[in-house]
Each structure stands twice: as C-alpha cells, then as structure tokens.
Amino acid sequence: MNFYNPENEIVPRNGNSLVVGIPGRISGCENQNEISLEDQVDHAKDVAYEMYDGEIEFRTITTTGKGERLDRPELQEIEKWLRSREFDLLIVEDLGRIVRGLEAHRLCGIAVDHGTRVLSVNDDIDTNQPDWEVRSVDACKEHMKHNEHTSRRIKFKKMNRFKKYGAATPCPIAGYIKPVGAKTFSDWSKDSGATHYIKGGLQVLRRTLNGAAVADYFNDVGFLPGPYCRKQKWDGTMVLSYFRNPILKGLPQRGKKHTTKLHEFGKRTSVVNPKGPTFREEPHLAFLSPDEIDPVLEAIAEKNAHFRRKKNQNGVDSRYQIPRKRTRAFGQHATCYYCGGHYVWGGNGITDNLMCSNSREWRCWNSVGFNGPKAAQKLLEVILESLSSLEEIDAQFQEIIRQIQSGGPENFLARENELNKVEEEIERESQHIKKLIRESADVKVDTSLLYEMMSELSERKKKLSQDRLALVHAQSRQLDLPESVLKLKEILLHHLDDVDIYSHEFGDLIRELVPEIYVYQVRLIDGGHLLPRAKIRLNLAGSISDATTFPKLQQLLSREMPLDLFEPPQRELIRPEVVRLATTGLEQREIARQLEGNPTQTAVWKSLQLHQKMLEQGLTNPYTLLDEPPDDYKKLRRHKNPKYSFQIKEGYQRPSL
C-alpha cells in the first residue's frame, strides 16, 4: 500500500512539526537482539520521511515482552498517547508489534476517535482508508492464527517423538547419566553408585514419612542433587518431589502440565494437565518397583492431606490464578535486618504470622515472627499520621514542582546520567559473575550462590529497565504530578480508603509507599521475650508514577522511622503511670487498684524495677537492640541445630538503625 496520498495531505495539528509515535517490540527469544528494535524504528522513520517533507518530532517506545501480554505498561502509555490528541501519526511495522490480538484493533479505534492516523506497514493498514477496520481485524486474526499454529505444531512434534522414540528428553535428575549428544531415553543410563543411596532413602521415607529426614540422610552420606538443581543440599520438599518422579520406576513422562491463557492479562501459565501425563516404559532406568514406592507415596499423601490449602465455598483454591510473588502486605517485601532474607507468610506454623525465609532454611537465627494484619494496621496509622503533617512542607513541594516544570530537558539528562551509572555498575558485577561461572568448572564453587547472585542481578536489571521506561514516558508527554500537598494527600487518601488491609491490592500499595522494611529484634533491659521492630522508609510519592523520575521530589516526601511490630509488655505499658503514682507516695497495691486493666501488685513491682534499671544505666528507652541470639533465652534454639549455618544474602549490607 502506498501511504502517501495527495488528497490526504498531512498537516501537523500543532502547526509546527509532525508528531509521530513509533512503538517497537521484540519477544526476547534466544535468536532476537536489541538491534531488531532499531530496525523497526528506522523503518517507521523512513515511512514518515516519505510522507512528509517538513520537521518531524519522533517519540518512541521500544520494549521486550510477549505480544499476548495485556498488562505491559507500554500499552497504557500508548493509549495515553492516543488520547492526548498530540500525535499526528502512529507508525508500526505490523499491529503485532503493539500487541497480538484484538486489543490492537481497539487501540486503532481510539486513535481514529482522537484524530491520530495509524499506519501498519506490513499489514497494509491505513486508518485513513474506509476499509481499515476490516483489514485490522484480519491482521489481528492472522497474527493470532500464526502463533497458535506454531504452538500446536511444536507441541505435537515433541509429543510424537516422545511416544515413538523416547525423544525430547528433559534435564537429568540425581542418579541418572545423560551422555553428551543424547537425544532419547534409550541413551540414558543409571548411576550404579546411586542405587544404594536411593534404596536407603526410601527406607528412611517408609519409616518416617518425612522428606526432611531423608534430606538429612542424603546430605550426610554425600548423595548430591542433580547437576541442574540450584541447591547443593537436599531439603524435604526436594526429596518428596524426587521420589514422586515416575522415572525412578522406569516410566518417564511428558505432558504432566500444559499452559493455559489468562485472557484478562494475555498471560500463559502452567497448570496440571487434566488429561494426565503420557508415560513411556524404559525398564533400564528403574531404580524402584511400583510395589516399593507407590504405597509409601500414598501414605505420605494421606498424612499430609489436611495441610493442603482449603478451598472456598465454590470449591476453588483461594490462590487460583494468583502469581506466587503477589502476596499480602509484608510478604516477600519485609527484609530481615540480620541476613537480608525476605519475610514469608506462615511463620512458625501460624497462618497470620511472617518469619525470615532464611531462618526456615537454617541460615539465620532470627526465627521470631510477627503478626501481619496487626503490623499492617500499625503501618496504616503511621501513613495517615504522616499525611496529616504534609501541610508543613507545602512551600518546598510547590517550589520543586515549579523547578521540574520549568527545568525542561536538564532534569531528564541528570536522571539519565544517574541511570547510566547504575547500568555500568550492574555490567561490572555481571562480568564478575560470568567469570566465576567459567572458573567453577575447575574450582569448586557454590553454584547455588552464583544462581542467587544472578537472580538478584536480574531483579536489578528489571528495576533499571522500569526506571528507564518511566523516564522515556515522562519525556514523551506532559508530566502528571500533583500541584500541591493537598492534592497529593487527596490522592493517597483515596487509594487507602479503597483497599482492605487483608487484600493483595493493599500489599501492592504498601510496596509503593514503603519500599524498605527492615525487621530486627529488641528486648527489654530486664530480659523477657524478643520483640520485632522495623525500620521503615516511607515514600509518600511512591504511588505517583512520574515522581519516580525526580529524586529530589522523592527525597522531600521520604522519611525513615522505627515501627514497633509488637504490643509492649505489661510492665512497660504501665510504667509511666506507675512511676507517676509512686512519686505521690502510694503503695504498690494501691497503685495497682488505680490502673486500667487490673494489673497485679507483682506487675507494678516489675514495672518499678524496670524503671530503676533505666535510671541506673542512664537510659530513656527500656529497649535494647539484639545483634545476636541471647544465651539466656531458651525459646530461641534454631542456631543450636547441627544444620544451622548463618549466611548473609549476597550483596546485602545492614542498614544503620
């Protein structure tokens, strides 16, 4: 299609320069690279120059992501482009570069409604033509059809080869040898030295019905996990997964799971195949017979049945179609001050408690948990209290907003320089890790630690990519920032009023408003239980997307403070009033009768003793920070276990308190 038409002469709507938007996308597959994005942008620019001889202003969004995903932030940005009425043209190689599916057709409709002309070069679509809707729907259908046919073809091919030849083999697990170049299960062989350990592990499992007991046995005798396992030592979950693998019975499987599409987000997830897996008999790979292992697995399933997550009244799992990384407030967000591990729900077997994930793995002594809903309520009160004091910084806030709006490109250039420095640091660390991986073949290196380092580096790269995308978005449109602290307060109160502290939405909001939570332990100077306290960094600009581009604004709206995740012990709770009444000459029993809550005379005595110790030590605060587990606290014994080995998360540095 020739997009230039003398009858439809292009006239910039702003009267000066033609504003052209260019979305580009690659899926990020193995054979794709970033230069493909440059090719897409250059192609679109060539089309624009052929159509218009005057001044052209190009605005681009180039991303890496699956075309079916509807929750990509760039789609929201493209829609903002189209609704802004600033753009004259939107040029893409094909509609699938925006999104694969009818969502692309909807965006074309929005563009037409707001006066933006869309050109899809390879699809021969021009929204100035009367048949653009038919062409758009046909193009979307073809992109989806190609994707679906390719997926079906690959799945059938692999399953067919598995059935006929035992091909399409997975990575080998512990006890199996897969020679270089092996293509079928017939090429695999058993590690003869593993038979004794697997048989011994089964005996322990039959006797205890406990995967952790078998893990201890495997670790003690030196039977290592498979070569592709990230962990170098067994744990209970790994053991049970290992013995449930039917290849131990000489029955390798394929098709245990398959992918389904969540049409709301365009995401494909792996779920259990209702038709069940397909098995293939390979007797030479059998370590155990079905008569040996099946009764043990059935007994374990019966024993653990009541631990399964309960279903709701409709028979649906409460976590159905919810990503594992999406949890309520504090889950996988709060950080252990001592080791850097994140907190997870289900601390010490209590559903509403959280505890350090490293402590679960015997790598941190801090096994003291805290109640999540109560902590969320306390944090909400702190946020609301901070909002009430925003009026004090209104003048500073408005001055920063004025500087941002008048600063122009200089603001964005400074931010880009900061991101470039972060990128250089990440690249240096990446090269260092790659060097360690190359050396691990000759020198014994903890590969699980390398995987953990790579995972952390991947998260930092993802954060850098998000920051760069936010910067690009901010450069391409008018900034959306509240003009005063009153407007900011109104926005935040609206967000807080609409969510329940038990919901995942509240957890998402807390991650924006409180990006850092470090949990540590304190104790009264006269002893007693360990009490969890947190150091939090509150960022009231966290939920304003454009504010992340300007550190000065975030600095003004950020503050650090302690947050008690516990209720004070009775002797400390009543101490101020006890001391006041004691100065009037009242006896301890009389003091107890005048206090709320009906404390005993013993509680009053303990309170006075605590105050006396504070005076002797010259303290105004009765709590003391714990840097290590106290010897006199008998309930904290995790660090006494032979499996215990304290490990700080790679790259973690304790913050100052």
TrEMBL record:
All residue ranges annotated as the Resolvase/invertase-type recombinase catalytic domain in the record: 20-163
Origin superkingdom: Bacteria
Cross-referenced Gene3D superfamilies: Resolvase, N-terminal catalytic domain
Any one Gene Ontology molecular-function term assigned to this protein's record: DNA strand exchange activity
Pfam families, per database record: Resolvase
Record key words, sorted: DNA recombination, DNA-binding
Name of the protein: Resolvase/invertase-type recombinase catalytic domain-containing protein
